[in-house]
Amino acid sequence: MPALPIFLFAAVSTFVALSILVIAQLVGPRKRTEVKMMPYESGMDPVHSARQRFNIGFYLLAIEFLVFDVELLFLYPWAVAAHERGAFGEGHGVFYAVCGFLAVLLIGFAYTWRKGVFKWT
Predict the structure, then answer these.
(1) Contact status, residue 105 vs residue 67, Cβ threshold 8 Å
(2) Structural domain of 10
(3) For residue 108, how many other CB atoms are within 10 A of its CB?
(4) Which residues contact 105 (CB under 8 A, 6 or more apart)?
(5) d(CA 109, CA 59)
(6) Residue 72 gets which letter from DSSP?
(7) How far apart are CA 51 and CA 69, in angstroms?
(8) Is 120 within a domain?
(9) How far is CA 43 from the centre of its chain?
(10) 81 touches 89 (CB < 8 A)
(11) Which residues does 84 contact at the CB level (< 8 Å), separation at least 6?
């Protein structure tokens, strides 16, 4: 049953997320104050113009996060299928394709590191 591990993962993660939301509603503070109701954006109080410039590092880091998040979305089903068929699956072609995919991501990561995306100066 190839779909069983994926189904279990989805069911457990949904249960954990919903239980955290319910616990937060039961335990969390309910007192509304003026400071709590004030808008808050990206770590800054919104007292200036809406056309204020942001550092490009915010956007680059967000894109980097999305790239590695999507990488995991591609690797998880492959890992489940490879586990069911053995270490590398029936053919080594899929394994080399995944290695190539990871190599391209590693090159992109090295490029962004070299460009200083992860420096917050």
Answers:
(1) yes
(2) 4-115
(3) 13
(4) 67, 68, 71
(5) 15
(6) H
(7) 30
(8) no
(9) 20
(10) yes
(11) 2
* In a domain? residue 10: yes
Cα separations (Å) of 68 from 72, 80, 115?
A: 6, 18, 18
42: left (phi over 0), alpha (psi -120 to 50) or beta: left
Task: Kindly report the length of the chain.
Answer: 121
How many folded domains does the chain comprise?
1
**According to the 3-state scheme, what is the secondary structure of 5-45?**
HHHHHHHHHHHHHHHHHHHHHHHCCCCCCCCCCCCCECCEC
Q: What is the pLDDT along the chain (121 residues), one digit of tens a residue?
A: 678 888 999 999 999 999 999 999 999 878 888 877 777 666 666 666 767 777 777 777 788 888 888 888 878 887 777 777 765 556 666 777 788 888 988 898 888 888 877 776 6
The verdict on pTM exceeding 0.70 is no
